[in-house]
Amino acid sequence: MSNVSTSKQRLGGDAWPRIAFQWRDYLELCKPNVVAVMLFTAVVGMLLATPGMLPWWALTVGSLGIALSAGSAAAINHLVDRHIDARMARTRARPLPTGQLSTAQAALFAAVIGTVGLGILYFLVNPLTAGLTFLSLIGYAFIYTLYLKRATPQNIVIGGAAGAAPPVLGWTAVTGQVDPHALLLFLIIFVWTPPHFWALAVHRREEYARVDIPMLPVTHGDRFTRLQILLYTILLAAVTLLPFSTGMSGWLYLTGASILNACYLGYAVALLVSGRPDLPMRAFRFSITYLLGIFALLLIDRYVPVWQAMISLWAS
Which residues have CB under 8 Å from 273's CB, separation 6+? Predict the structure, then answer.
């Protein structure tokens, strides 16, 4: 007890709360909620790539490398957008706008975890996964954040390719090659991204206009954006049927995906015909549930026969 007290005196009375708070700031730089969703889709890619034994090495080491790399890209996004974030209600409490972390701290943190993450993937997983992860990091942190976000209202459509990469990364972490089924998982997230993000952009239209970010509601108006959300949601519903039509998944997936698609299309139609102010954020939140549900269904559908076989074996 005395040793702890002595240490606190050496560091200063409020040092421990300050250190703990800074760790939370560093964690926030990584956008942990976003990375968690990305990591889940990567893990599903890993598990779908192996019909038999669980790929423990990829699940542990590969997931760590992908998570660190994604966290690095998120930190770079915080760094580049710090001036914009300071002017938007949704982001002004982030660590850089509030001064809880300096730009030098954020840059060093991003560089360290990015290097470690890519190194893990290159040396302990395989070079292909490391290379694709590097391209994804560059695509999101630099091409999207530095250029596309400020250049075109199609920013989220083009830049969505980087966010759609995790299931491909998970697949290659296990197999060492890019499979057509992995690209199908990529396509699902790629088509999902615009209606997901445009719902948020509709809700935050005035803030994006104030900071001169040419999001679709700012450049083409609210009504046009809502129509695009509906059209993309229809396209997404069609794309999510491809795993069944290609034999990648079965009837369990098709049933669940159809229910999720009906719900998401309901939100998209409601956005178009109703001016209720709560609908954009409700649609935005449901879109996250939707994506997690689609990937969970893919996983459950694949492993139900395995579980049934294990139960039969145990029962006999």
Answer: none
Q: Give the up-direction half-sphere exposure of residue 292: CA atoms within 13 A in the CB hemisphere.
A: 12
CA 110 – CA 71 distance, rounded (Å): 8
DSSP letters along 145-176, please? IIIIHHH-TTHHHHHHHHHT-HHHHHHHHHHS
User: Which of 164, 171, 168 shows the shortest CA–CA distance to 140?
Assistant: 164
> What does the alpha-carbon distance between residue 2 and residue 9 come to, in Å, rounded to a whole number?
10
Per-residue pLDDT of 145-176, as tens digits, reads: 999 999 999 999 999 999 999 999 999 999 99
Three-class DSSP category at 277: coil
Contact 298, 44 (CB under 8 A): yes
Joined tokens for residue 309: 């076989």
- The residue length of the chain stands at 316
> Per residue in 100-133, pLDDT tens?
999 999 999 999 999 999 999 999 999 999 999 9
